[in-house]
Amino acid sequence: xxxxxxxxxGIPILAAVLWANPLVAAEIDHxxxxxxxxxxxxxxxxxxxxxxxxxxxxGGGEPALHCIATALFKMGHPAEAAKRLEALAxxxxxDADVRAGLLAQAxxxxxxxxxxxxxxxxxxxxxxxxxxxxxLLIDRAVAVAALGxxxxxxxxxxxxxxxxxxxxxxxxxxxxxxRHLGETPGAxxxxxxxxxxxxxxxxxxxERGMLKRLAxxxxxxxxxxxxxxQTAPDADVAxxxxxxxxxxxxxxx
Length: 253
Fold this sequence. Notes:
Elements: H1 30-43, H2 45-57, H3 61-74, H4 78-91, H5 96-113, H6 116-129, H7 134-146, H8 150-163, H9 168-180, H10 184-197, H11 202-214, H12 218-231, H13 236-249
Helix pairs in contact: 1-2, 1-3, 2-3, 3-4, 4-5, 5-6, 6-7, 7-8, 8-9, 9-10, 9-11, 10-11, 11-12, 11-13, 12-13
């Protein structure tokens, strides 16, 4: 169970954040400033950081602070970004779901920093604001799995699946947790559930290949991993499939 895909999401902040500060100068179009600043954060984060600071000085409020934190993350400063996002979530006057979203982004930054324990703590705080949110449960499961606590990861994922049985990612992640716990039959059942929801789901094929290899079915494992390379050749999961193939039977291009 890896943590890389948790950086996958970049959970969107609700539009309500855009109007956090009603006292800003009327001539500034804050909706446009927020959109432009966030787009710039992905293209040129250093420039976005400066724009965000200037906008904040003009009364940009929470949206400007969010853009600055996003830019810092993109600049390669995840710990600083996480701290700013946590502070923003604490001071924000927005609804619980918006503050939970900020904490979820902070947790992603802590994972990027290599601090899954801090990510777990942050996600637990987010779940206090928005209990039983499947996405937060999945993210916390990934964080605790990175700490080697696969039993708690499986519990969070089971809760997420109870709430939303239609999310193939949750099924695959629980399969991975169960594999680490030695619960092979349950892991295989979870992979099958994911593939029923999304046939040829690359992450499920990768996981099923691992389970087949553990069972001594090298041909079946190779078939699943080759299928990953065929269906998602440019995805990160393809790199994992290549690594598994190389570990099993040598050079695979």
